[in-house]
Amino acid sequence: MENNKQDQNFDKFADKFEKNIYGSTKGRLRHELLVHHLHNYISHKSMPLEVLDAGGGTGVMTEVMLGLGHKVTLSDMSSEVLSIAKQKLGENINLDIQHTDILSLSNNKQFDLVVCHAVLEWLQDPLEVIDKLVDLVKPGGHLSLSFFNHDAQLFGNMLYGNFDYVEQGMTTKNIVRLSPNNPQKPKVIVSQLESLPVKIIKQAGIRCFHDYLKQPEKQTSEYEQLKQLEIQYGSTEPYLWLGKYFLIIAQKDG
């Protein structure tokens, strides 16, 4: 990516994105942990929720929401990833797909649940986008944010011995297109949310242990045991701060 004043767009490599991200234990575990933590807010409701999957890409989370009977608006700025989403999701009366960036979404409609997962780290001004997302939540509704964790990125690179990379501020001239260019510090995002009309009700690390295993083959061979331990410890101190992704669920003031 040209790391200038543009947000990341996946138009030129949507298929690679889908395969690399969700065709691995990294992607599978991240998705399953997010669904686990969101469970209380998306299932067993007496009425379908109106959900916005903002920057929802190929519709992985949208598919879960639709399966639970909710009404979903899936938005993304990449036409190619939305094309994959349309093929995957098919025709559904509960699905509205919008080709747009988050800041261009209309303020005329608010949602019971706004989901924005793995998006902030690709944006030039994520704090402005957070303000917009909160505006799109109905009073009493929920916002779910997850993002690539800058602090965990630094910790991991130190463990891997990438000292020069850390000293350079974890930036290189040769940007890897599928490597987030603007990872976020959890406490900065928490501070931003605390300035807005929401209450944080859940914080969790996503993949607190998976990426650090000295025996990477156990990511596959002992996946279910690893997943249960991620669930057990991922919401507790100090491990939540080590997750490669960080999750925040907030409820808007009623």
TrEMBL record:
Q: What is its EC number?
A: 2.1.1.-
Its top-level enzyme class, in one word, is transferase
MF term (GO), any? S-adenosylmethionine-dependent methyltransferase activity
Presence of the UniProt keyword Transmembrane helix in the record = no
* Methyltransferase type domain boundaries: 52-144
- Catalyzed reaction equations: 5-carboxymethoxyuridine(34) in tRNA + S-adenosyl-L-methionine = 5-methoxycarbonylmethoxyuridine(34) in tRNA + S-adenosyl-L-homocysteine
List the SUPFAM superfamilies: S-adenosyl-L-methionine-dependent methyltransferases
Which Pfam families does UniProt cross-reference here? Methyltransf_11 (PF08241)
Q: Which domain of life is it from?
A: Bacteria
Q: Does the keyword tRNA processing apply?
A: yes
Function (record text): Catalyzes the methylation of 5-carboxymethoxyuridine (cmo5U) to form 5-methoxycarbonylmethoxyuridine (mcmo5U) at position 34 in tRNAs.
User: Which family is this sequence assigned to?
Assistant: Belongs to the class I-like SAM-binding methyltransferase superfamily. CmoM family.
Q: What is the name of the protein in this document? A: tRNA 5-carboxymethoxyuridine methyltransferase
Q: Which organism is it from?
A: Paraglaciecola arctica BSs20135
